[in-house]
Amino acid sequence: MENHSHEDHGHEHHGNFWTTYIFSEDHKVIAKQFLITGMAWALIGGLLSVLFRLQLGFPDANLSWLKPLLGGWLTADGKIDPEFYLALVTMHGTIMVFFVLTAGLSGTFSNFLIPLQIGARDMASGFMNMLSYWFFFLSSSIMFTSLFLSTGPAGGGWTIYPPLSALPQAISGSGLGMTLWLVSMAFFIVSSLLGSINYITTVINLRTVGMSFTKLPLTIWAFFFTAIIGVLSFPVLFAAVLLLIFDRGFGTSFYLSDIYIGGEALPNQGGSPILFQHLFWFLGHPEVYIVILPSLGITSEIISTNSRKPIFGYKAMVGSLLFIAILSFVVWAHHMFVTGMNPFLGSIFTLLTLIIAIPSAVKIFNYVTTMWRGNIRFTPAMLFSIGMVSYFLTGGITGLFVGNSAVDIQLHDTYFIVAHFHLVMGVAAFFGMFAGVYHWFPKMFGRMMNEKLGYIHFWLTFIGGYLIFFPMHYIGIAGFPRRYYTWTNFETFSGFTDLNLLVSIAAIVTFFTQFIFVFNFIYSIFRGKLAPANPWESNALEWTTPRFPGHGNWPGEIPTVYRWPYDYSKPGAKEDFIPQHIPYSETPESNLPHENELIKLEGMDATIHVEEKKHH
Amino acid sequence: MENTVDLRIVEEPKRSLSMDPKKFGMWLFLSTVMMLFMAITSAYIVRQAEGNWVYFELPFSFYVTSFVIVASSVTMQLAYRASKRDRVQQSKLFITLTSVLGVVFLAGQFMGWQQLVASNIYLVGNPSGSFLYVITGLHGLHLISAIAFLFIILAAVFKGNVSSKNMTKMEMCTTYWHFLGGLWLYLFIFLILYR
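Above: the input entities. Below: the structure tokens describing the complete assembly.
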């Protein structure tokens, strides 16, 4: 085991370029590494979706002008190769779900905010944190390499259901591309587990004096539950992937049975493809909450700060996060209603699934009531947070449709499902990520992002997102199945050409809109206005650090925390915010009776600090 | 210092959990290992319920190794106690014994595989056999990592780097070892019950 006792101390480290920016153990640098890698992945994932939207929106177009990019993946008459289309869909899903919205979102904000908001010098283990990033990088490199194989990347859908994914002779995308997918995911799981273990340990063990669980910002609660979900669910994906690797590489029959392919009967006997679905969705469903919970946490913090009001129902917000986290483990079979499961079992999973609407609704109502009569400041981060609430609501409502086994039999694997999950976890999580970047950019880089560009980015993305995914509900109810290369062969679906055209145009425009954000991001790192110490007048602890916090975050003592993070617009207070490190003894004008009682404890500060020092 | 005592009673600003972060991280790691085996054993149950399942006797060797791993847990605990009381000689003896028993366990598991092969149960074939290989193999891999950890501790004990004041690694190793022992007992009883 490594020995890193020096991390517990706060002094600055002066390393060379490599130890400062590449193999850094500082949580802030690692967070930026995750963010930038995640953004690169998001652009790749978005580009892939534009490519397959070209095929869906312009089925007759000649795409030979894409030859320099796609080369052999275009057919002789300038169309995207059908098998490559499947690979595009698969890789878009894999990249967005795992590399952008899991590693890019959780990796960035858990790493960046946990130590800063709980008042810690760094993560519990900086070394493990660094390993987490580099496993992610390794996993990314392998997945990226698989894009350039002559047989193409994995093509069996991001859910990689066997037998399709288990048999290289089935499609070319189940060949080497699938092998690399599995290897890459194995490393990804290691990265995610290292990260999660670190987040949980840090939140539990390294909070500053006074930072009890009831005083944690909701962001930290969200990251904490996300990490717990990750620790419990990713090993199950590992088991599923491992058994699939055995089936592919060693000829076992965990998932394979009675298959006759290409005129040849396979020897595999006794396997069950449904078994894979159980294992996969036992991760897969918690995974969508791993994606959305950090966004819910980030928006809670931003909405409260920019409404200049305490978050409405702090305990209800924590409780609903916890409830969602627990429920996420008992609803997986709602992805499998059409696998021939016992209808009684189906109705149990329907019931459990619909219960998720309760904590989700609690969150929506609390967001709205937090904003109600607040002095709302429409910063770009705030707009994206409100947008996130909007998308979470719109997408969540259709969850009630598809969570119902009777309705789902009609809607299963149609564009309705695509619309549902893109709104509720795709766009909503992306909006949470954008909100987080706009909000914490001043802390990350010491400079402000351009607000005007932020507004343009928001409105185009907000409208674009709805234009892409709203029409898909209609296409889906009409029965158009997802993952199909073309529908022009079927007379039934030829009426949807115009809708699909609209969706494709919206997707292309929205994709290119993101370059406004990329430009703003890169430009502001170097040329943005210098950020004041607390640009959003926020209460949370990260704004008590210097503009460019060094390794160790606070130059002197870590501030002691006296109050919860949502003392905005407190009646009687001089200003409309009172940061967490301001003791009650300094704010007699706004204290409530029970808070005056707490002043007595504050005098004992000195002894606590003495104790503190002894610990180090 | 009286103030500090007062503080503890009203308990407002206190130090968070007193557990060592590394030890805590270790427990979280153990929970991921637990989930991995939970996943595989429940997959086993689900798969078995679907029929077409070949029944066979567990190799005799697994019964022996189960005793070996329990014995190694006992010696591990004795080594831990000895180190905690700074009885260096005892500590050296028991940590060596534990390492030997660990290697014996692994050898026994491998012999179990040989016995399986002798009775025509291969990795490739009916899932009942495949599952047995995967379960024992995964447990074996984890045990190899534990033995590597144990060797590090063994070296530390012989160099005199483990004492009552420096027990963190020893404690972590003991925890890991007991956990893998308990995990094997769970798997073994599971395999006996759901053959």
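Note for the figure: The CA atoms of residues 47 and 127 of chain B lie 8 Å apart.
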